[in-house]
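Worked example 3 (structure in, sequence out).
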C-alpha cells in the first residue's frame, strides 16, 4: 500500500479498480484523490486481514472458492452463459447452497462454512456482497439443518471421552495389528516414547478441555508443576483469549494428567519449547511442534489401538470433561472457565445438559 502513495502521498483514482473505489464508501462525499486514498487503505486492510488468518483457514477458503468456480462451470452448462466468479448475488448464492446440497451431498454445517468462505474471498477480490444475498443463502439452509438425514452427512457430534476411555487407551498393548498387504499380516510396535507422548497428550487435553489447536500450542515452560498438580497456560488461538487453568493429580496413575506429563517430559528431556513433538516409528523425537491434526490423530489412533467401539476425535476430550464433570457434581461455571467457553456459548450448555441428563430425571421418584 505504501508504494501506491507516491510522492504526494496521493493515489490517482485511475490506478484503482471500480470495485476498490466503491469500497471507500460514498465517493461523491470526497474529491477523487481522497476517495482513492481511502479505497487503497480499505484494500490494504482486506489484504492484511487475509494474511493474518491461520494457514488452515486460508486453505479452507481457497477450497471454498474452487467449489464456487466448479459451481459456476455447472451453471454455465445449465444456462449456456458464463457468469463472472465475482457475481455473488442472492440468486447465485442460493443456487450454490442447493448445488452443494444436491450435487455434493454436503452437510449443512459444511455448506454454512462455505458460504462464509465464498463471501470473504469475493470481498477480497473487490466485490461488494449484498447482505440480502448471504441472508437468503442461510434462509435456504435452515430447513436443511433440521433434516436428520442431511445432518448425518457430516462427522456429527464428537463422542465425549470418559476416564474409562482414557484408561483403556493408556493401558493398551504397544503392539498393534497392521493392515494386510498381499498375504502377509504383521504388527507394529508403538515406540515407548510415542506411548508416553500419547498418554500425556490425551490426559492433558482432557484436563484442560483443550481444542486440538490449543493442545498443539502448549509450551513446556507454560506447564508448571506445583504441589497440587499442574498450572497450565493455554495460549491464545484464533483470536480467543488465553487462559490459565489448574489440573489436579488424578486418582489413577494411568489417567492422571500430572503423572503422565511428568513421564513424557522426563523421557523427551523437555526443558522449553513445544510441549508435544512428533515421534517416528523408530522412536526418534522430531524437532517441530506437533500440529493440531497430529494432536487429533494421537487421540483417534489411541482409541483404535485400545479397540474402543467409540470413534474418538480431537474434540472428544474437550466435550468429555464437561459431561463427566457435571455427572460428578462439578460446577458449570468452573468447567466453562477451564475450557475457555463464552458465557453464552450454546455448545457449552449443550454439553452441560448432556452431563445432567440422569440427574433428577422427570420420571425418577414419581411412583412409577
Amino acid at each position: 500500500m505504501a508504494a501506491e502513495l507516491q510522492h504526494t502521498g496521493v493515489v490517482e483514482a485511475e490506478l484503482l479498480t471500480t470495485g476498490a473505489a466503491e469500497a471507500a464508501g460514498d465517493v461523491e462525499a470526497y474529491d477523487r484523490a481522497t476517495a482513492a486514498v481511502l479505497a487503497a487503505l480499505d484494500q490494504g486492510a482486506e489484504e492484511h486481514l487475509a494474511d493474518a488468518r491461520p494457514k488452515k483457514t486460508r486453505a479452507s477458503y481457497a477450497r471454498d472458492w474452487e467449489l464456487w468456480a466448479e459451481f459456476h462451470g455447472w451453471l454455465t452448462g445449465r444456462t449456456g452463459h458464463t457468469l463472472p466468479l465475482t457475481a455473488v448475488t442472492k440468486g447465485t448464492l442460493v443456487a450454490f447452497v442447493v448445488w452443494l446440497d444436491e450435487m455434493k451431498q454436503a452437510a449443512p454445517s459444511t455448506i454454512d462454512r462455505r458460504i462464509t468462505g465464498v463471501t470473504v474471498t469475493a470481498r477480497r477480490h473487490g466485490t461488494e456482497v449484498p447482505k440480502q444475498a448471504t441472508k437468503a443463502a442461510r434462509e435456504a439452509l435452515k430447513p436443511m439443518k433440521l433434516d436428520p438425514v442431511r445432518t448425518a452427512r457430516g462427522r456429527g457430534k464428537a463422542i465425549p471421552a470418559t476416564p474409562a476411555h482414557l484408561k483403556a487407551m493408556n493401558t493398551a498393548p504397544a503392539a498393534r495389528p497392521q493392515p494386510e498387504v498381499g498375504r502377509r499380516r504383521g504388527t507394529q510396535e508403538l515406540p515407548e516414547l510415542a506411548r508416553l507422548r500419547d498418554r500425556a497428550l490425551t490426559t492433558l487435553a482432557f484436563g484442560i478441555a483443550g481444542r486440538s489447536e490449543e493442545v498443539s500450542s502448549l509450551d513446556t515452560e507454560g506447564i508448571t508443576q506445583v504441589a497440587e498438580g499442574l498450572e497450565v497456560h493455554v495460549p491464545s488461538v484464533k483470536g480467543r483469549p488465553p487462559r490459565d487453568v489448574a489440573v489436579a493429580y488424578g486418582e489413577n496413575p494411568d489417567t492422571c494428567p500430572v503423572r503422565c506429563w511428568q513421564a513424557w517430559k522426563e523421557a523427551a528431556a523437555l526443558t522449553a519449547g513445544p510441549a508435544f513433538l512428533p515421534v517416528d516409528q523408530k522412536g526418534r523425537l522430531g524437532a517441530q511442534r506437533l500440529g493440531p491434526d497430529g494432536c487429533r490423530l494421537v487421540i483417534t489412533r489411541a482409541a483404535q489401538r485400545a479397540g474402543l467401539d467409540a470413534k474418538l476425535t480431537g474434540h472428544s476430550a474437550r466435550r468429555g470433561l464437561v459431561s463427566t464433570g457435571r455427572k460428578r457434581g462439578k460446577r458449570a461455571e468452573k468447567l466453562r472457565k477451564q475450557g475457555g467457553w463464552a458465557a453464552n456459548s450454546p455448545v457449552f450448555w449443550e454439553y452441560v445438559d448432556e452431563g445432567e441428563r440422569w440427574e433428577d430425571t422427570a420420571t425418577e421418584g414419581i411412583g412409577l
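Notes: The beta strands are 175-177, 187-189, 223-226, 229-234, 243-248. The chain has 15 helices and five strands.
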